[in-house]
Specification:
The chain is of the alpha+beta class. The protein has one domain. It is built from 4 helices and 6 strands; from the N terminus they run H-E-H-E-H-H-E-E-E-E.
Length: 141
């Protein structure tokens, strides 16, 4: 069932409640199934990640770029740009970060960065995940 929400509230408003409802339905039928969610950066919120961690739901969430994240991969991104300019081909490297926001996250989490340079532009991307590094490499995420 689709639900409309006012446009003047956070994109993730009500997400925890909806996820709880859906996860409960899934676990009623398949109690041992591993559940993962994937969402864009509008859902990388403390309440959602904390709920997932408490309920055993894995997540991979986009994470919006910011100056701190870009600085953290600055060297890798610079190197990717140089290699791309020299070869004319896309260059990607993946960087693991232990990251915590200054105000909104209660704890440090695993963030994977893709330092990517395409001919003419850099396209860094970030995800925050509950998936352990020993199970899934940066590149896989």
């Amino acid at each position: 069932m689709a639900k409309l929400r006012p446009s003047n509230q956070d994109a993730a408003a009500g997400a925890v409640e909806e996820l709880a409802r859906v996860v409960a339905q899934i676990r009623t039928r398949w109690p041992a199934v591993e559940i993962w969610i994937r969402a864009d950066s509008g859902f990388a919120r403390e309440a959602l990640m904390t709920w997932c961690e408490a309920k055993g739901v894995e997540y991979v969430l986009g994470l919006a770029r910011n100056a701190r994240l870009q600085r953290a991969i600055g060297g890798d991104l610079h190197e990717a740009k140089q290699r791309c300019e020299a070869s004319g081909e896309a260059v990607r490297s993946f960087v693991e970060l232990d990251y915590r926001t200054k105000k909104t996250w209660r704890r440090t989490r695993r963030v994977v960065a893709k330092a990517e340079a395409l001919p003419g532009k850099a396209t860094p991307r970030f995800v925050v995940t509950s998936l352990a590094a020993d199970r899934f490499s940066s590149k896989e995420l």
